[in-house]
């Protein structure tokens, strides 16, 4: 079964850091780009960051550029998101997403909740 | 960034109705457009990719069309299980989503 399982979310104070992880299974991980998409409570979807299969191409949304870093470990079938200088407005459910043809998001995890609050 | 404008933002329709949602891009995105369905409390699901291609296992009552800046998503005969929020997403440049269309049963 193709599956993405996120972990690492939680409650954190503004200005602090958090690292999200995503464990992939059921498919050849290094055949695909991977992305993070978030959804603030009661709001729509926002693309956060994406990484190509070999980490050669990386992109970030304007709201997280300079604060978040995406990475992957193909040997461990894992995707990561290092989030620094967190803000209240980063509060959201963070989805790990598989990118078919790079940015066709065909498989989604169940999400991990990040709450930034003092 | 390319802006995606969905219409309407919410919609109420009866079972069996034809439902149409539109998505307009702020610049030409060719056919680099996807449609997703999100049911309450669930992760989004890919329905349509490259503007008009039905993803595997998606019922044929769903369809998409368009190119350039104007796109349409259609449900030919609304079913109760179609209650959800629908999003368009472009990927001509860094991905961006429309604001979503909440679909309810009348």
Describe the structure.
The complex is a heterodimer of chains A (about 120) and B (about 110). With about 120 residues, chain A is mostly beta strands. In chain A, about 0% of the residues lie in helices and about 55% in strands. In chain A, strands 2, 4, 5, 6, 9, 10 and 11 form a seven-stranded mixed β-sheet that branches. In chain A, β7 and β8 form a beta hairpin. The radius of gyration of chain A is 13 Å and the shape is globular. In chain B, the strands form two sheets. In chain B, strands 2, 4, 5, 6, 9, 10 and 11 form a seven-stranded mixed β-sheet that branches. In chain B, β9 and β10 (about 95) form a beta hairpin. Chain B is globular and about 35 Å long. The chains are: A mainly beta (about 120), B mainly beta (about 110).
- Mean pLDDT of chain B, as a whole number? 97
Q: N-to-C SSE series of chain B?
A: EEEEEEEEEEE
Q: Overall pLDDT of chain A, averaged? A: 97
Overall 3D geometry of chain B?
A: globular
Sequence stretches where pLDDT stays below 50 over 5 or more residues of chain B: none
Radius of gyration of chain A: 13 Å
Based on secondary structure, the structural category of chain A is mainly beta
Radius of gyration from the alpha-carbon trace of chain B, in angstroms: 13 Å
């Amino acid at each position: 079964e193709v599956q993405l399982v996120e972990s690492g979310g939680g409650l954190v104070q503004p200005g602090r850091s958090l690292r999200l992880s995503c464990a992939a299974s059921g498919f050849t991980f290094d055949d695909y780009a991977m992305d993070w998409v978030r959804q603030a409570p009661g709001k729509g979807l926002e693309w956060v960051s994406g990484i190509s299969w070999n980490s050669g191409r990386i992109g970030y949304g304007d709201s997280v550029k300079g604060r978040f870093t995406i990475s992957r470990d193909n040997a461990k079938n894992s995707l990561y998101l290092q989030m620094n200088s967190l803000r209240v407005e980063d509060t959201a459910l963070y989805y790990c997403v598989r990118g078919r043809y790079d940015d066709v998001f065909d498989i989604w995890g169940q999400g991990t909740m990040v709450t930034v609050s003092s | 960034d390319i802006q995606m404008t969905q219409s309407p933002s919410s919609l109420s329709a009866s079972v069996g109705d034809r439902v149409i949602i539109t998505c307009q891009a702020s610049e030409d995105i060719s056919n680099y457009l996807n449609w997703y369905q999100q049911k309450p409390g669930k992760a989004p699901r890919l329905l349509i990719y490259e503007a008009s291609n039905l993803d595997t296992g998606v019922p044929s009552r769903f369809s998409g069309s368009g190119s350039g800046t104007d796109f349409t998503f259609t449900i030919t005969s609304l079913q109760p299980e179609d209650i959800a929020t629908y999003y368009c997403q472009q990927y001509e440049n860094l991905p961006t989503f429309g604001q979503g269309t909440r679909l309810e049963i009348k």
